[in-house]
Design brief:
Growth Hormone, Chain: A; mainly alpha; 0% strand
């Protein structure tokens, strides 16, 4: 049996420790005093008939492809289509992690209204489109410049990730019918699950087709982002509130 490097064991132990810390914190949370008999499981097909919400779920699913770009698309593109060493992939992912942790609160500001959440999705679509176009340029310059281009692409990807997360979360709650939030959010996350299944195939096709694939994907991201305000106005015309009262009280 091949002996694994010590780093792997350290990662597993740190992961186990994080679970223990989370379990400790969870054990200190207050227990709800609501009697179990007063809780009812609700099921409704209204979410499947809600045109604005389904449309939003669809464009959000497309924009969440930033996850597959990070884990599959960019690494494969670097290895197969650039002269950049594969060792650069890990630092690029580290840049994504640091920026995501540092800027997620700032990126979420203003997404407590339908219009604000839609603006977040517009920014997400634009940022992801820029990322795709930068990836097109990465194979062309010398290695040092190519690394710089890839760094900019990762920054753009991270911006898309942050704006999509903030706008997607905000709009998923704001567009849900009152009293049916659980059902609506289940449909919302079903869209994300479909993306996780289909996106690896789509990203594989993009990498295979090269420049044309990246340009088409960039256009898809941009169009989905620009569609968000239209969907928001459609939802408001169907009676959705301008702002969630609970979010207003919280801020």
């Amino acid at each position: 049996m091949t002996r694994q490097p010590p780093g792997y064991g350290a990662i597993l132990l740190l992961n186990a420790a994080s679970f223990a810390v989370l379990a400790t914190l969870a054990s200190r949370l207050p227990v709800l005093s609501t009697p179990a008999k007063s809780l009812r499981r609700r099921f409704s097909v209204d979410a499947l008939r809600d045109g604005p919400f389904l449309s939003f779920t669809g464009i959000n699913a497309v924009l969440t492809m930033h996850m597959t770009l990070l884990s599959i698309g960019i690494p494969l593109w670097i290895v197969e289509h650039t002269e950049v060493p594969a060792a650069v992939i890990s630092p690029l992912v580290a840049v994504n992690t640091v920026l995501a942790v540092a800027l997620q609160v700032r990126a979420s500001r203003g997404t407590d209204t339908i219009a604000g959440a839609a603006r977040g999705l517009v920014r997400a679509g634009g940022s992801l489109a820029v990322c795709c176009l930068l990836l097109v340029a990465a194979p062309k310059p010398p290695v040092v410049l190519a690394v710089g281009v890839l760094l900019l692409a990762m920054v753009a990807l991270t911006a898309g990730e942050l704006f999509q997360s903030a706008g997607g979360w905000g709009e998923s709650y704001l567009l849900a019918a009152p009293g049916q939030e659980g059902v609506y959010l289940s449909v919302f996350w079903l869209g994300v699950a479909v993306q996780q299944i289909a996106a690896p195939v789509l990203i594989g096709l993009v990498i295979t087709t090269g420049t044309t694939g990246w340009v088409v994907l960039a256009a898809l991201f941009a169009v989905c982002g620009l569609t968000a305000p239209v969907i928001g106005r459609w939802a408001q015309a169907n009676g959705r509130p301008q702002q969630d009262p609970a979010l207003t009280e919280a801020t």
